[in-house]
Amino acid sequence: MTETHLPKQDWSTQSRRALSASEVVTQLSQLTGWVLSGDGADVAIEKTFRFANYYETMAFVNGVALVAHTQDHHPDLSVHYNRCVVRFNTHDVHGLSVTDFECARRIEALLQLA
Q1: Under a CB-based contact definition with an 8 Å cutoff, are residues 56 and 114 in contact?
Q2: DSSP 35-73
Q3: Per the confidence metrics, is the pTM higher than 0.90?
Q4: Rounded Cα gap, residues 4 and 2, in angstroms
Q5: Any residues with CB less than 8 A from the CB of 9 and at least 6 apart, and which?
Q6: Which tens digits make up the pLDDT trace of 12-41?
Q7: How far apart are CA 18 and CA 106, in angstroms?
Q8: What SS3 class is residue 85?
Q9: For the chain: N or C, fewer Cβ within 10 A?
Q10: What are the Cα distances from residue 109, in Å, to 42, 63, 67, 93, 106?
Q11: If 0-12 CB within 10 Å is exposed, 13-18 middle and 19+ buried, where does residue 52 land?
Q12: Which long-range contacts (C-beta less than 8 Å, at least 24 apart) are formed by 111-114?
């Protein structure tokens, strides 16, 4: 298997921190349909994406995998026949970081391409 030529984000070169509650609310207000899930170090943002069938769901999942790979930030996915739940948090900051919201925006952009 060969390595992809897609540029990969290196988050280790950037200082990341957990966002404050007000920063989370501000970031979340800029995303449609994303909600807070969990609390404490397990707090996350998540959204359920719905599709007509399994084929469309899996096409979306593959797009999410590409975003996750290029951003080097991997969500938890719950994949079903006609829907996929995408859940982001940043484990190393024990909360939510700007990275989570940036990746959510990129996933939203996938649907604009369809």
Answers
A1: no
A2: EEES-GGG-EEEEEEE-SSHHHHHHHHHHHHHHHHHHT-
A3: no
A4: 6
A5: 70, 71, 72, 73
A6: 667 789 999 999 999 999 999 999 999 988
A7: 20
A8: strand
A9: N
A10: 26, 10, 10, 26, 5
A11: exposed
A12: 111/49, 111/60
What would the pLDDT profile of 71-89 be if each residue is shown by its tens digit? 999 999 999 999 999 999 9
> How far is 79 from 101, CA to CA, in rounded Å?
21
Half-sphere exposure of 50 (CA within 13 A, CB side): 1
Cα 56 to Cα 111: distance, rounded to the nearest angstrom = 11
Indicate the residue type of 89. N
Furthest C-alpha separation in the chain: 44
H/E stretch holding 27 reads helix 21-28
Structure tokens at 90: 């940043």
Residue 77 Cα distances to 12, 28, 46, 47, angstroms = 23, 19, 10, 10
Residue with tokens 């609310």: 25
